[in-house]
Design goal:
It is a single chain. Helices cover about 50% and strands about 10% of the residues. With about 400 residues, it is an alpha+beta fold. The strands form four sheets. The chain has a seven-stranded mixed β-sheet with strand order 3-4-5-2-1-10-11. The longest helix has 17 residues, at about 210-225. The structure holds adenosine-5'-triphosphate (ATP) and magnesium ion. Adenosine-5'-triphosphate (ATP) binds near residues 25, 38, 118 and 155.
């Protein structure tokens, strides 16, 4: 395994002072899988104050001193160096009440969630893998460290993490761990909406979210939609997800629609349920909710028709709608998409922002006031959209004078 130079520096400096140190967790997992780790974490027998002392010549940030984490910056790389620790009892199915530092790496690895996340690597001694994470990585298995029910009750976010790793890596969840995922699902009510949303988004944007949702939809249904249980043998077809481009709003819209359809309910109702239970940024909320609200629009490849829809709904919603309707096989959108690309490429004017006249032009030229101005601008925009007038200032003022002013 190749460790970046700053990681090697950090490990050897800790060792030179008589401590143990390893790269640990996600970075070890990702390196073995051949994907560039997002960040490198180091676990060590040194206490936080000892770490700060060893790296006194570097920039040291006391990120989470209470939990034993110190961030050290080496050659502009941020390294989180955390003391071996044991998590005490947990409260609210999420947070350990207290953490105890340890000098034993196995104790540290045993608090980690899954075997593939509980491996450590040292450049001299190689892998330290008491929970056989390497085997599970090769077998493509997500397996809890220890007793799955206990681990999910300690921290229910691990339920979402299990599903997320399975989706993103294309792994199976080991049988007992999967049983516990179902058994502990009600504990998700104690997990903050933002944390659930982050994991859900990663599942939605993974290569095959449909497979995970088809198997595990009942895990989310209460937390996301307030539906505690489904009829036995209920199945939900999530295959439209695999036909949706990998963008968050359309994937989220398709996910919600699939749930609603399975229960013969209205997608708009399910969208409202979802967004009242979750917390999303305004843009994702608007794009997703607008797409679901406008599902019934029937598209054609008529350029004027498409310009009107863009004017009313906005380009993003139109794109999302085509994306979603295609996923449900409503019809062939080839010619519609070609026309849409023409509209975009040739920069057809579809909104007031791009109209060659503005309110001031109308006030100055025709002494219009108040509401009249807005109405006039919309009439002119419609004239441009319908090819009745060119989008040029002179032409528009002339058109207004001759056709609209009375
Ligand atoms: P990613 O960075 O892709 O989200 P990760 O596994 O690296 O995945 P981090 O949040 O960076 O996740 O956490 C680093 C390591 O800390 C994990 O690999 C795991 O060993 C441990 N860890 C993280 N969250 C939990 C948790 N909720 N319960 C137990 N261990 C955890
Ligand atoms: Mg990580």
């Amino acid at each position: 395994m190749n460790l970046p130079a700053p990681v090697l520096t950090a490990i050897s400096k800790l060792e030179a002072s008589g401590f143990e140190a390893y790269a640990v967790g996600g970075c070890v997992r990702d390196s073995i899988l051949g994907t560039e780790p997002l960040d490198w974490d180091i676990t060590t027998s040194a206490l936080p104050e000892e770490v700060s002392e060893i790296f006194r010549d570097f920039k040291v940030i006391p990120t989470g001193i209470k939990h034993g984490t110190v961030t050290v910056i080496i050659s502009s790389m941020h390294l989180e160096i955390t003391t071996y620790r044991i998590d005490g009892k947990y409260e609210d199915n999420r947070h350990p009440v207290q953490v105890t530092f340890s000098r034993n790496i196995t104790e540290d690895l045993s608090r980690r969630d899954f075997t593939i996340n509980a491996m450590a690597y040292n450049p001299q001694t190689g892998f330290f893998d008491p929970f056989r994470g390497l085997d599970d990585l090769n077998r493509k298995i997500i397996k809890a460290v220890g007793i799955p029910e206990k681990r999910f009750s300690e921290d229910a976010l691990r339920i979402m993490r299990a599903l997320r790793f399975a989706a993103v890596l294309g792994f199976e969840i080991e049988e007992k761990t999967a049983d516990a995922v179902f058994q502990c699902r009600t504990l998700l009510k104690n997990i903050a909406a933002e944390r659930i949303g982050t994991e859900l988004n990663k599942i939605l944007l993974s290569p095959a979210p449909d497979l995970i949702f088809e198997k595990y939809f009942s895990v989310f249904s209460e937390r996301l939609f307030g539906i505690p249980s489904f009829p036995d043998k209920q199945k939900i077809d999530f295959s439209p997800l695999s036909r949706t481009t990998s963008d968050l709003a359309p994937r989220l819209a398709v996910f919600i629609i699939c749930f609603a359809k399975a229960l013969n309910s209205s997608p708009v109702d399910f969208s409202e349920r979802f967004f009242s239970n979750m917390r999303y940024d305004n843009q994702t909320y608007r794009e997703t909710a607008n797409t679901i609200k406008n599902l019934d629009i029937v598209f054609s490849d008529n350029r004027i028709f498409l310009r009107h829809i863009i004017k009313e709904k906005g380009l993003t919603t139109v794109r999302n709608l085509i994306n979603v309707q295609k996923a449900f096989n409503k019809s062939d959108f080839c010619s519609t998409e070609i026309t849409l690309e023409k509209i975009i490429f040739e920069q057809d004017c579809c909104n007031l922002r791009n109209l060659a006249v503005n309110g001031t032009d109308l006030t100055n030229g025709f002494s219009l006031q108040g509401e009249e101005i807005g109405k006039a601008l919309v009439l002119l925009l419609d004239a441009v959209i319908e090819n009745k007038c060119e989008n040029k200032k002179d032409a528009l003022l002339e058109y207004f004078k001759n056709k609209l002013l009375h």
